[in-house]
Design brief:
The protein is α/β, with parallel strands linked by helices and 191 residues long. A six-stranded mixed β-sheet has the order 2-3-1-4-5-6, sandwiched between helices.
Length: 191
């Protein structure tokens, strides 16, 4: 089996690291060798966060280089452009249609760029997921990340893994049912 490279990007507080941990748990339980790395940047201040998950028969390094990601999952629209160069020419983008204005935008020193999803769609096979609407319908905006995990699993055709077990092992028990619903809703969003 070829090594697969998954790049998850977002803004601090969006739960990209939790998703990477659930993803790694599920893949390891399924027998893959998995390596994960995380880059926080100014995450605690709403800055950029990226996590890289590589899996296959034998993985030696957790790092994904430029032009090597099979799939880019962007939890925030603008982050998609920042990380697009890491996508393989035939790679896939899953983008959350959700905007979090950065500090320069909030202070009026910059405008939120328009047309990002269109630009990304011109450059790569793109699946847009409105995880905010889906998680709002589930009653909790904090599960947007797990909605995107469900979309990722469906897009990567990893549906034969026991993801419910991985989700339940990674979140607090009182939030487990909600997160499983969010995961399933994310899978349905890309069917």
């Amino acid at each position: 089996m070829d090594t697969k490279n998954i790049l998850l990007v977002g803004v601090g507080g969006q739960g990209t690291i939790l998703v990477s941990k659930i993803l790694s748990t599920g893949l390891m339980d399924a027998g893959y060798d998995v390596k994960m790395s995380e880059i926080h940047g100014m995450a605690q201040r709403g800055g950029s966060v990226s996590t890289q998950v590589r899996y296959g028969e034998k993985i030696y390094s957790p790092i994904i280089g430029s032009g090597q990601a099979d799939i880019l999952v962007s939890f925030e629209t603008m982050e998609t452009m920042r990380w697009l160069e890491f996508l393989k020419p035939d790679g896939v983008v899953v983008v959350n249609d959700y905007e979090i204005p950065s500090a320069p935008i909030l202070t009026g020193k910059a405008d939120y760029p328009q047309g990002i999803i269109e630009m990304v769609s011109d450059k790569a096979r793109t699946k847009v997921v409105n995880a905010a609407d889906i998680s709002e319908k589930l009653g909790n905006m904090k599960v947007m990340n797990v909605v995107l995990l469900g979309a990722l699993v469906k897009m990567m055709n990893l549906t034969d893994i026991d993801w419910e077990k991985a989700v339940r092992a990674s979140v607090k028990e009182k939030f487990a049912d909600l997160n499983v619903k969010a995961f399933n809703a994310g899978m349905e969003a890309v069917s």
